[in-house]
Design brief:
heterodimer; A: about 220 residues; mainly alpha; MetI-like fold; about 80% helix; about 0% strand; flat; B: about 280 residues; alpha/beta; Rossmann fold; four-stranded antiparallel sheet; 12 strands; about 25% strand; disordered N terminus; cell membrane (chain A); Ectoine_EhuC (chain A)
């Protein structure tokens, strides 16, 4: 029996594009939130610190699926109606961003204290100390754990299946309805595509890491 | 400030006023009744000390004597618990409000005062993500507002002085400990401070690398009219370049005087037994 790969391509192609779109948008949201809340939780201003910690603790503790349901099914009750795509992006971004913020915070704290002291002794302004000395070194430390997190993010995009957004997983399920006997092939292909997508994330991050740690 | 206790008086063999510095003029740095407490631990127990323009002062003493804390308070890395530090007669950690009241210094005041102080650290603290050249030009460009060309010129001049003019493009990770410390010295010198704190700058170095760093400092000491505060465990070095040696123990100054007096005729028992360990 020959496997009808070609028949599946159009649907899987569309699904892949949607998955890439959700992933990229969620990555953008998650990285912004990571940076804001991560830096915020090292802020000397207590209000900013409390706000950052609250966000991190709240959204890290949320089940992503429940958060997704909440954003998509519950928010309309308070008058906020988001498309499936944006509901997915918002839920994933909020959840992963909270994890990312902890990576940012710990990377900042991992920069040796002597770096801060030397930049103070040279009389750099507090802003210069942070952005010219601490952050560049912290970024180098963030990349490997951030790479993990972004792969995690990519894989969690499949949860949008449950709000019937036609992503890669959703399309695979549709195909499975029509080609039931090929189920093992369909899911093998599905896993293969996720593998390729996550490889592209890890390769990108590897290149970034090399670039940001040339000094090591 | 509380009155000095009987014990304090007995260990301070020479009150500040009686020490004649080899240099004259108004002191550039004055510690007045300075104490520092970390939690329950009183590290500095009341120090009065003056440093004169151009003076090379060595601080010696057992570890835990508070030498490093004295230097760090001058560099504004630690705030004194009580007492005052004056730089050019102006309080370092306090500032005058428009109504003339002394209040805790803000960052703006500290930055203005800090301009006069430089520091070289035990663990170098070079910026690992920046090249040797960038380590040295960063502050002149950001803080002093020099152009790239001016900063480059000054940096190369300083790096030549410490013998590293051929390492401009290297990252610190590619340098030996001695070379790192020499870059750190150039980085501090390029800001042209009036007072430089050298905080145990050879303590983290392999023994065979100590010499090259001390040599560089010695040359600077001879060449420049910058005041120096040398916190050190290198007795020969202290004897060679210091105008005055301060021996401290347990947060107090026990004895001070010329290198000859301190090393040849130590008066206090503390100092005598301390020096024995270096013979």
């Amino acid at each position: 029996m020959s496997v009808p790969w070609l028949d599946w391509l159009p649907l899987l192609g569309e699904g892949t594009l949607i998955t890439i779109k959700i992933a990229l948008l969620s990555i953008a949201v998650a990285l912004c939130l990571s940076a804001l809340a991560g830096l915020g939780s090292t802020s000397p201003i207590i209000i900013i610190r409390i706000a950052s910690r609250t966000y991190i603790e709240l959204f890290r503790a949320c089940s992503l699926l429940v958060l997704l349901f909440w954003v998509y099914f519950a928010l309309p009750f308070v008058g906020v109606e988001l498309s499936k795509l944006w509901a997915g992006v918002l839920a994933i971004g909020l959840n992963i961003g909270a994890y990312g913020a902890e990576i940012v915070r710990s990377a900042i704290f991992a920069v040796p204290k002597g770096q801060y002291e030397a930049s103070l002794a040279l009389n750099l302004t507090p802003t210069e100390r942070t952005w010219k000395i601490i952050i560049p070194q912290a970024v180098a430390r963030m990349i490997p754990p951030m790479s993990n997190l972004l792969i995690e993010l990519l894989k969690s995009t499949s949860l949008v299946y449950f709000i019937t957004l036609s992503d890669l997983t959703y399309e695979a399920m549709i195909i499975r309805n029509n080609y039931y006997s090929y189920t093992p092939y369909i899911f093998a292909l599905l896993l293969g595509i996720y593998f390729v997508l996550s490889s592209s994330i890890s390769i990108t991050m590897r290149i970034l890491e090399r670039k940001f740690t040339a000094w090591r | 400030m509380s009155e000095p206790t009987a014990e304090t008086k007995s260990v301070m063999t020479l009150p500040r006023e009686e020490v004649v510095s080899p240099l004259t003029g108004e002191p550039i740095v004055q510690y007045q009744g300075v104490t520092k407490t970390f939690g329950d631990l009183e590290v500095i127990k009341g120090i009065d000390l003056a440093l004169y323009p151009g003076e090379k002062m060595a601080l010696i003493g057992p570890s835990g004597s508070g030498k490093t804390t004295l230097g760090r308070m001058l560099m504004t890395l630690e705030e004194p618990t009580t007492g005052t530090i004056l730089i050019d007669g102006e309080p370092l950690w306090q500032m005058k409000t428009s109504s003339g009241k002394l209040v805790r210094a803000n960052e703006k005041h500290l930055r203005r005062m800090r301009q006069k102080i430089g520091m070289v650290f035990q663990h170098f603290n070079l910026f690992p993500h920046l090249s040797v050249l960038r380590n040295v030009t960063l502050a002149p460009m950001s803080v002093l507002g020099l152009s790239k060309e001016e900063a480059y010129q000054r940096a190369v001049e300083m790096l030549t002085k410490v013998g590293l003019q051929d390492k401009l493009g290297e990252y610190p990770s590619r340098l030996s400990g001695g070379q790192k410390q020499r870059v750190a010295i150039a980085r501090a010198l390029v800001m042209q401070p009036k007072v430089m704190v050298f905080d145990e700058v050879t303590s983290a170095l392999d023994p065979e690398l100590v010499g090259e760093v001390l040599e560089v400092i010695k040359e600077i000491a001879i060449d420049s009219d910058m005041a120096m505060m040398l916190i050190t465990h290198e007795m020969d070095f202290a004897r060679d370049i210091a105008d005055r040696v301060i021996f401290g123990a347990e947060g107090r100054i026990v004895e001070q005087g010329s290198p000859e007096a301190i090393f040849e005729q130590p008066e206090s028992e503390r100092l005598q037994s301390f020096l024995k360990r270096f013979r």
